[in-house]
Amino acid sequence: MYITDYITIDPNICHGKPCFKGTRIMVYLVLEMLAAGETPDDVIAAYPDLTKDAIAAALLFAAKTTAVSEREVPFAQPLHASVSR
Description:
single chain, 85 residues, Arc Repressor Mutant, subunit A, mainly alpha
């Protein structure tokens, strides 16, 4: 699996925020759901266009992104912030 199989960054889609290919579902929305305790099945119920592999790609994307840009992570944000869909 490659991250780019599932995630794209295009300045013409969602203002250049990372999204799942073929959708306007932004990666951060799925990551917030998982952080709030939702399961991959919950995410797929909310976003039926996604697969478990796409969700795994989002987690890998987050891991790789934070490995290179830790200083940009808002550590002051509450761990269980409300999730909006």
